[in-house]
């Protein structure tokens, strides 16, 4: 059973029946060559040199380097620019094949049991993610409910799950996670689902530390906050990042939902005001349907729980980074900086013990670049979270596949980050 749950005074909009599934011809990335370009700190010059080339920029907003996938027709023109560029992958199309086919979800167990862990061997169609979420709820029926944070531009529910331990619903501070705001970052969906799976299965098994964690918090987990974009990556363009909202009189589609939060929105250099750009911030603060849904839901989560939001994480890929605020004000430091850094570094240290992945922790502005209108600044400053992070998962770099992580890398990625989260949730 699906429940539409209103939190506090906020009415959660009912999802409209207007489900649109545009199916254009699939974009082919066969023969696209992936480069890592050293910009020598002059990204503006490099961007103007490559402006007319057919390519995908994997790292919009970075300063010191750009990861670019260049179309086969433009490889010679790109090489002729003489940039400080190294080829890291010969053929993005081949990499996409290495992700394997989207595997339909086959339940092998009784409906009251948890789904099997083989879910994490493959990527899956969007509808199956909804079924997976519902099945987790059915396996933990008295301690969980399905929640809907409003609707996307194309009218899809932004679906999540809320669960709690022995203190009952709404009785403890919130742990609040978002996955897949950037549509092409597929590993984030799988990671958020694995963490959720481990929390619920550990609770059901009576695993002591996991039971203590679930008893201590109310969890609100939204594995796919940009469903329209995510579906577009599955049907049409694997490299799509933004939502799917056209803008009047513009030939480009999509707003970067993670530059559209109504806080530090109009900051020079933190986002783009061009509708064609990967980091297009929208026409005014919070003007995407996704953002209106997420802001209302976030504020409701902050208000509904005793103790507000303890931990927020916006899951992204790639780069092996644990990021804290601020992204919208590079001169400011969060008030509890030492505490947040200690926990972020501690999480990174635990992740490294599993398989050697080295995560770097720090404020967005220091580690990456200015990023305005981002979730973590809003959730820290406005929603009052104690810890508010952005988390860049595997791979470490474009050489590891960028957004395209082979299916056999899903399990190692989710397992190491489960250990990190298990430590964090027990320690914070
Ligand atoms: C952004 O800020 C600048 C400088 O304060 C201002 O001129 C401009 O109108 C603002 N833009 C929007 C869309 O609010
Ligand atoms: Zn991202």
TrEMBL record:
Q: Which residues form the active site?
A: 392
Which prosthetic group or cofactor does it need?
Zn(2+)
- The superkingdom listed in its UniProt entry is Eukaryota
One GO process term, biological-process aspect? proteolysis
Q: Which keywords has UniProt assigned to this entry?
A: Carboxypeptidase, Hydrolase, Metal-binding, Metalloprotease, Protease, Signal, Zinc
Keyword Metal-binding in the entry? The reply is yes
User: Residue ranges of the Peptidase M14 domain?
Assistant: 122-428
The signal peptide annotation in the UniProt record is 1-17
PROSITE patterns assigned: PEPTIDASE_M14
Q: Name one GO molecular function term.
A: zinc ion binding
Q: Signal as a keyword?
A: yes
UniProt cross-references to SMART domains, sorted A to Z: Zn_pept
A Pfam family the protein falls into: Peptidase_M14
**Stored SUPFAM superfamilies:** Protease propeptides/inhibitors (SSF54897), Zn-dependent exopeptidases (SSF53187)
Family from the record: Belongs to the peptidase M14 family.
PANTHER family (alphabetical): PROTEASE FAMILY M14 CARBOXYPEPTIDASE A,B (PTHR11705), SLL0236 PROTEIN (PTHR11705:SF143)
What is the name of this protein? Carboxypeptidase B
- This protein's species is Sodiomyces alkalinus (strain CBS 110278 / VKM F-3762 / F11)
